TrEMBL record:
Residues 188-284, 460-543 form the 3-hydroxyacyl-CoA dehydrogenase C-terminal domain. Pathway: Lipid metabolism; butanoate metabolism. The keyword Oxidoreductase applies. GO terms for molecular function: 3-hydroxybutyryl-CoA dehydrogenase activity; NAD+ binding. Keywords: Oxidoreductase. Residues 7-185, 341-457 form the 3-hydroxyacyl-CoA dehydrogenase NAD binding domain. This is 3-hydroxybutyryl-CoA dehydrogenase. Belongs to the 3-hydroxyacyl-CoA dehydrogenase family. Pfam families: 3HCDH, 3HCDH_N. GO terms for biological process: fatty acid beta-oxidation. Gene3D superfamilies: N-(1-d-carboxylethyl)-l-norvaline Dehydrogenase, domain 2 (1.10.1040.10), NAD(P)-binding Rossmann-like Domain (3.40.50.720).
Length: 555
């Protein structure tokens, strides 16, 4: 079976369906789009023409090219018009009974050797195929949003899918200029399985009020270099869709990592569905709008201040030296105290005092370093009232606040390596940190040409807590035989637009570093959060010193 695919049907012309029609038509195929009513058919036509018009106005397509693509597309409300299709992709709502009805009708319309595909993001392809006449021709073809832009297409085969069908669909996807990843039928397939663990962890942080929506998104877009922050992405995908996918994955994994978020449920029930309804985590200029508009949660002008002008840096190592150069270069007056054990009166004029000793030097006898507890007790005495005390080391903000006696003004700072989207400096606070301190630090960090992310001081703050949990989850997924290293990396890089896949990232950061932070995150929960437990395969790679990716082992 599986002849050459030239004519394609797409059922359901919502955002995904219309995007899929566009991909096929741009690839030179004849496309028949089917909707249930004239009204929905018009909406589908509208999405397609707007997308073509945008391409013309951006100079990506000329008028003749636009017409040629549109001429390949027929939009109809008659399922019977699908008779000549070699492949039909359904993109109807995620209700199993509805999919069964559609596939049952198709069995009586298309040729015996036509392929029936589902773009489901959450339902089992096996369950969709089971009652059909020819389950061997049923397959999953999972596009990513926005379909015309994202390169990945997951091709999902069941135990019964004919190999020739899988091969034909994979070749078709390749011919469209997309990147196919062929995988078995497991909950969330590859990309969504990893994505939704991460999104859920991010949701928990906002739900707990440990970080604002803007800072959370900045943390992952700028701090981790991802194309969008998690909340912006959920608004794009649709919160109802996210809620549904999350539920299905949790139904299979039963891992607290995927446990349904009650905040998400409340938002969906309230009609806050993301961009499509004009309001999700953010507000948009209207239903379907792309641009965010200000709302009651948008930070006010007083969120940042220029309260910090003079800075003291304590420490004599490379970290302190680089910090002094950077802060001075940004135009702040800097006092550099290289001997933390000596006279600290030099900090008295500073608006901000940063402890930046080499982490080991404080413990070494005879070194200029000083035990951090002693140092913060002394800084509490020496700094002027209202000055901010901070450390760039991995100490606890609350411990240092208690020791210094400066509950309102003591924080931790985490300076991240720059990514393709800029650089983040995180600020870890306690519940007593004052708004003035936070505003002053935000202003200071911007002054360094970095972006501030303020959160409650919990292990890993935001960037590491989310990134390392996701990386550990990718290793667990590999260990559970979901897919290969190459397929998981391809799925994430081309389905979600990350700069690299999780395994390339682990090899880039160092598996030992990922393991160390994961162990900290796990022990930070007292060992109760089993889903944060380091994957045994990660431990193996560290102990045996083996990279995950071929590229890394060739180095
Ligand atoms: N529809 C069609 N095209 C779009 C679009 C949309 N909604 N949004 C952006 N584009 C196009 C633009 O027209 C532009 O095209 P051009 O280069 O030909 O002119 C191109 O994408 C880049 O757009 P912008 O310059 O406006 O914006 P960005 O550079 O920020 O890119 C993005 C936008 C491509 C959406 C990027 O932010 C990204 O890759 N985000 C991650 C998206 C993602 O993770 N998708 C997967 C979600 S999960 C999923 O779909 C699975 C499902 O089962 C839930």
């Amino acid at each position: 079976m599986a002849k050459q695919i030239r004519t394609v049907g797409v059922i359901g012309l919502g955002t995904m369906g219309a995007g899929i029609v566009e991909v096929f038509a741009r690839g030179g195929l004849t496309v028949i789009g089917v909707e249930s009513t004239e009204e929905f058919a018009d909406r589908g036509r509208g999405i397609l023409t707007r997308s073509m018009d945008r391409a013309v106005s951006r100079g990506k397509l000329d008028e003749a090219g636009r017409q040629e693509i549109l001429d390949r597309i027929t939009v109809t409300t008659e399922m019977g018009d699908l008779a000549p299709a070699d492949l039909v992709v359904e993109a109807v709502p995620e209700v199993l009974e509805l999919k069964h009805e559609v596939f049952g009708r198709l069995d009586g319309i298309v040729a015996e050797d036509a392929v029936l595909a589902s773009n489901t993001s959450s339902l089992s392809i096996t369950a969709i195929a089971a009652p059909t006449k020819h389950p061997e021709r049923v397959i999953g073809v999972h596009f990513f949003n926005p379909a015309p832009v994202m390169q990945l297409v997951e091709v999902i085969h069941t135990l019964r899918t004919d190999q020739a069908v899988t091969d034909a669909v994979r070749d078709l996807v390749t011919g469209l200029g997309k990147r196919p990843v062929v995988v078995g039928d497991r909950a969330g397939f590859v990309a969504n399985y990893l994505l939704f663990g991460y999104l859920n962890s991010a949701l928990t942080m906002v739900e707990h009020g440990h970080v604002s929506r803007e800072d959370l998104d900045t943390a992952m877009r700028v701090g981790a270099g991802l194309p969008m922050g998690p909340l912006t992405l959920m608004d794009l995908v649709g919160l109802d869709v996210c809620h549904h996918i999350g539920d299905v994955i949790y139904g299979h994994s039963r891992s607290p990592l995927h446990a349904p978020s009650s905040m998400l449920e409340r938002m969906v029930v309230s009609g806050r569905l993301g961009r499509k309804s004009g309001r999700g985590f953010y507000s948009y200029e209207g239903p379907g709008g792309r641009d965010v508009v200000a709302d009651e949660l948008t930070p006010g002008e007083d969120a940042e201040s220029a309260g910090i002008r003079t800075v003291a840096v304590v420490g004599d190592g490379t970290v302190a030296g680089e910090l002094v150069a950077r802060v001075e270069g940004a135009g702040y007056a800097v006092t550099h105290l290289t001997d933390a054990s000596g006279d600290l009166s030099g900090v008295a004029a500073a608006d901000l005092v940063i402890e930046a000793q080499e982490e080991d030097s404080a413990a070494e006898d005879g070194a200029a370093g000083r035990d951090v507890d002693e140092l913060f007790a002394a800084l509490g005495e020496a700094a002027r009232s209202g000055a901010v005390l901070a450390t760039v080391n991995t100490y606890s903000a609350v411990a240092l606040a208690a020791i210094s006696g400066r509950a309102e003004d003591t924080v931790v700072l985490r300076v991240h390596a720059p990514t393709g989207n800029g650089q983040v400096i995180e600020v870890g606070t306690t519940h007593t940190t004052s708004a003035a301190t936070v505003a002053a630090l935000r202003g200071f960090i911007r002054g360094l040409d970095a972006e501030p992310v303020v959160s409650r001081d919990r292990t890993g703050l935001v960037v590491d807590a989310l990134l390392m949990t996701y990386l550990n989850d990718a290793v667990r997924m590999l260990d559970e035989g979901y897919a290969t290293v190459e397929d998981i990396d391809t799925a994430i890089q081309f389905g979600l637009g990350y700069p690299m896949g999780p395994f390339a990232m682990i090899d880039h950061i160092g598996a030992d570093e990922v393991l160390a932070v994961t162990e900290e995150l796990f022990s930070g929960t007292g060992g109760f959060a089993q889903h944060l437990m380091p994957s045994p395969l990660l431990v193996e790679h560290v102990l045996l010193d083996r990279p995950f990716t071929q590229g890394a082992s060739d180095d």
